[in-house]
Write a structure and sequence with these properties.
The protein has 196 residues and is an all-alpha fold. It has one domain. The chain has 8 helices and no strands. It is elongated and about 90 Å long. The N and C termini lie far apart (61 Å). The relative contact order is 0.11.
């Protein structure tokens, strides 16, 4: 349920930004009460749903509900891509305008917008990070790969690639943890060293 709330909030945010890109700027100049309310409510809703996503992602990872974790990764990241592409386009327009008006301010605005986009992106990657932890617990990935995939989820653009990789790996991962091959090898060596 929470993953779908995140999808709805992301798509509503994208719908609010879209008119500016197709030339319908009048919606921003004289907004209707509904649009004004959405501009006020959506940031708060995004914050609340993001906190709920943290809790939900941890619960799904702990419960081992792999199928619903894969669905959450795909659904939230797909909606996140639409939202973040429009937000990035909007950010480029704002940064470019500010840079032309006053270059030092434009640089600061650009840095601020990159940080803001990253902060907005992280909640869309939480299910993916939970998936990485789940894969690690299942023994499907080693520590190095898990670290790389988790870091990829925290960087714009690479988060999409990491989400696809994690969703695919979770889809084919075994449902029970696999034994550590090193422990099996050590047990085998101990058996061979027994005196007869």
């Amino acid at each position: 349920m929470i993953r779908w709330a995140m999808v709805v909030v992301l798509l509503l945010g994208a719908a609010l930004m879209a008119p500016g890109f197709i030339g319908l700027r009048a919606i921003y100049d004289d907004p209707s009460p509904i649009v004004s309310t959405l501009f006020t409510v959506l940031p708060v809703a995004y914050l609340v749903v993001s906190i709920a996503v943290i809790v939900d992602a941890v619960r799904r990872m702990q419960r081992g509900t792999t199928r619903t974790l894969v669905q959450a990764i795909v659904a939230v990241k797909a909606a996140g891509v639409v939202f973040l592409c429009l937000a990035a386009g909007f950010s480029v327009l704002v940064a470019t305008t500010m840079f032309h008006l006053h270059p030092p301010t434009g640089i600061l605005v650009t840095i601020g917008l990159v940080v803001l986009l990253t902060v907005l992106m992280v909640p869309t990657s939480l299910y993916g990070i939970a998936g990485v932890v789940r894969l690690r617990r299942l023994g499907a990935v080693g520590g190095g790969l898990a670290a790389v995939l988790a870091l990829m989820h925290l960087v714009l653009v690479t988060d999409l690639v990491a989400s696809i990789i994690v969703a695919r790996m979770l889809h084919v991962a075994p449902s029970a943890p696999q034994p550590d091959p090193r422990q099996e090898w050590e047990a085998f060596q101990r058996l061979q060293q027994r005196p007869e």
